[in-house]
């Protein structure tokens, strides 16, 4: 019986395995999966690649495409040039705001680039962010004009002690120009590439009016960080290039003529001019100490007498004095016997020299001036010829510590900066006269209305 029961059980299980599955109402019908159509028409390995290795197929496609794009520039250079291909007209590549580009090269806005093709001229040079202290002053405002024309971003810092807002107001609205009313004796935080440090009262009337402020704007005290030291500290923190505008006054009443940069000077440290003379000498010392001790990249310019539009009308400098007096029909005031000599450079020449120094590789100091030498009487005669031949000359006692001779030796600037002044006095003076005449006329009209 046991064997019969075991046999019947085994037979029953076999029947269950061999019998088709009976569908119930709760089990959905699932047809048998069909084979992929590629498997019938393609080789088995390719069918497997397409059906099971899609990711590998995508990667291979990306590699093939990348190879094409890498080789395409090389193939285009090897292709013969198209004779019908013409350079597009310059008008289609000059932007509406020409000031973004170097305006001096807008007439020819293309230059070669790596031997193939052309690009707009302004693309090659990185636009710099530059701060100009004293940028609303006479020289500073002309420097700002040139930097903006070149395409740089410019921040002007000025406390308007001697500067005038009118000197830079034609840049208001330019997105690359900023004006900050600030005194450099107080610290300021900026992010710039270059610092042109021009801030300091430079005329006798101004620095004698406030000699203490003049000298502390250039010197360091234990309890305060002022003027030049502030700007040098800023240059050190942000890695900016720093240019100090020093002066020919560091030579004092020179015993060497003409003056070379190697001459140490002959300065009275307790005279009425010493606040300016010694202040600038100290500024040069600080600049070189930061260069040697802190690795700041610095430049030093020693500026000789400069004239041009936007000078202060009554700043005590000889050129502005003579021009203003001649326009106002006043006698030209000559101090002493009039035989003391000066050299006079036009402001545009000085700006070119400052920018050449900043962009060059040499620290300096460099004399920037016009070696053409005039006595005060000769200058008075040139002013008379230009403005009013009937003007008279009035002699007064000379001022204390007035240098007898002043003439730069600019051979170093010629050799290392490829710079020398180009505008002679008789060409530059009429440009200054036109500006002075317009301002004096407006000044007189304003007085008449009061």
TrEMBL record:
Record's keyword terms, sorted: Decarboxylase, Golgi apparatus, Lyase, Membrane, NAD, Transmembrane, Transmembrane helix
Keyword Transmembrane annotated: yes
Membrane topology classification: Single-pass type II membrane protein
Cofactor dependency: NAD(+)
UniProt GO MF annotations: NAD+ binding; UDP-glucuronate decarboxylase activity
Pathway annotation from the record: Nucleotide-sugar biosynthesis; UDP-alpha-D-xylose biosynthesis; UDP-alpha-D-xylose from UDP-alpha-D-glucuronate: step 1/1
UniProt superkingdom: Eukaryota
One GO term (biological process): D-xylose metabolic process
Protein family: Belongs to the NAD(P)-dependent epimerase/dehydratase family. UDP-glucuronic acid decarboxylase subfamily.
Annotated protein name in UniProt: UDP-glucuronate decarboxylase
């Amino acid at each position: 019986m046991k064997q019969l029961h075991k046999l019947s059980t085994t037979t029953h299980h076999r029947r269950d395995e061999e019998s088709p599955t009976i569908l119930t109402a709760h089990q959905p019908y699932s047809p048998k999966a069909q084979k992929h159509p590629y498997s019938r028409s393609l080789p088995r390995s390719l069918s497997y690649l397409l059906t099971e290795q899609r990711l590998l197929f995508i990667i291979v496609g990306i590699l093939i495409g990348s190879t094409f794009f890498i080789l395409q520039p090389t193939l285009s250079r090897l292709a013969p040039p198209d004779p019908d291909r013409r350079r597009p007209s310059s008008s289609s590549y000059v932007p509406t705001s020409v000031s973004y580009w170097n305006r001096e090269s807008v007439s020819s806005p293309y230059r070669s680039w790596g031997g193939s093709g052309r690009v707009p001229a302004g693309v090659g040079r990185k636009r710099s962010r530059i701060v100009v202290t004293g940028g609303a002053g006479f020289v500073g405002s002309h420097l700002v004009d040139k930097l903006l024309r070149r395409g740089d971003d410019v921040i002007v810092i000025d406390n308007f002690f001697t500067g005038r807002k009118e000197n830079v107001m034609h840049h208001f609205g330019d997105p690359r120009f900023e004006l900050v009313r600030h005194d450099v004796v107080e610290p300021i935080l900026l992010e710039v590439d270059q610092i042109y440090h021009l801030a300091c009262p430079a005329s006798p009337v101004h620095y004698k009016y406030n000699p203490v402020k003049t000298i502390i704007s250039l010197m360091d005290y234990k309890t305060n960080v002022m003027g030049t030291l502030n700007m040098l500290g800023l240059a050190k923190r942000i890695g900016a290039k720093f240019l100090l505008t020093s002066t020919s006054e560091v030579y004092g009443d020179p015993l060497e003529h003409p003056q070379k940069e190697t001459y140490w000077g002959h300065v009275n440290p307790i005279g009425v001019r010493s606040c300016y003379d010694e202040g600038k000498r100290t500024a040069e010392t600080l600049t070189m100490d930061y260069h040697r001790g802190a690795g700041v990249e610095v430049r030093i310019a020693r500026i000789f007498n400069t004239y041009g539009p936007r000078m202060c009308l009554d700043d005590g400098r000889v050129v502005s004095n003579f021009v203003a007096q001649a326009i106002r029909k006043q006698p030209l005031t000559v101090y002493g016997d009039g035989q003391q000599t000066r050299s006079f450079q036009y402001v545009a020449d000085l700006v070119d020299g400052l920018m050449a120094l900043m962009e060059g590789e040499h620290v300096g100091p460099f004399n920037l001036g016009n070696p053409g030498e005039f006595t005060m009487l000769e200058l008075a005669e040139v002013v008379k010829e230009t403005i009013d031949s009937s003007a008279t000359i009035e002699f007064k006692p000379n001022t204390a510590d007035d240098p007898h001779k002043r003439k730069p030796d600019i051979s170093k600037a010629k050799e290392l900066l490829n710079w020398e002044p180009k505008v002679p006095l008789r060409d530059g003076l009429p440009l200054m006269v036109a500006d002075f005449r317009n301002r004096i006329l407006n000044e007189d009209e304003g007085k008449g209305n009061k």
